Known about the structure:
Elements: E1 22-25, E2 30-33, E3 39-50, E4 56-68, H1 78-92, E5 96-98, H2 102-111
Parallel strand pairs: 4-5
Antiparallel strand pairs: 1-2, 2-3, 3-4
Domain N-acetyltransferase: 23-120
Protein name: Acetyltransferase-like
Organism: Iris pallida (Sweet iris)
Amino acid sequence: MAKSGGGGGEAAAVPPPAAPVIVWNEKEGKFETEDKEAFLQYYLRELVVAHGEGKKKKRTVMDMAHTFVPRSKRGLGLAAHLTVAAFNHAQAHSMLVIPTCSYISDTFLPRNPSWSALVYTEEMKSSI
């Protein structure tokens, strides 16, 4: 005899999908999904930035150049997960960020303004 699910026609709650595992591929300058299909490409640059009144300091800056998510995986939030992983890495290593990728500058940062403190700005340029 089969058990009845009880009544009311309520649907069982479906748990949200687990956050994807993002891997740092230091050799290729990427943050990527485990299957390597979605990624954020970056380049490290050394820049001299203004630091206090008239002082200059050399800083490593992460230029986030490009994000890619295959068509079959779009709409799952992978670009945002990749970007958060890259910003967390930059923050942990005292880096500034240049958001060259249009997704990061035009979509991610406006939706996540708390990360703006890490963004390299024109005001930080040193006048050498």
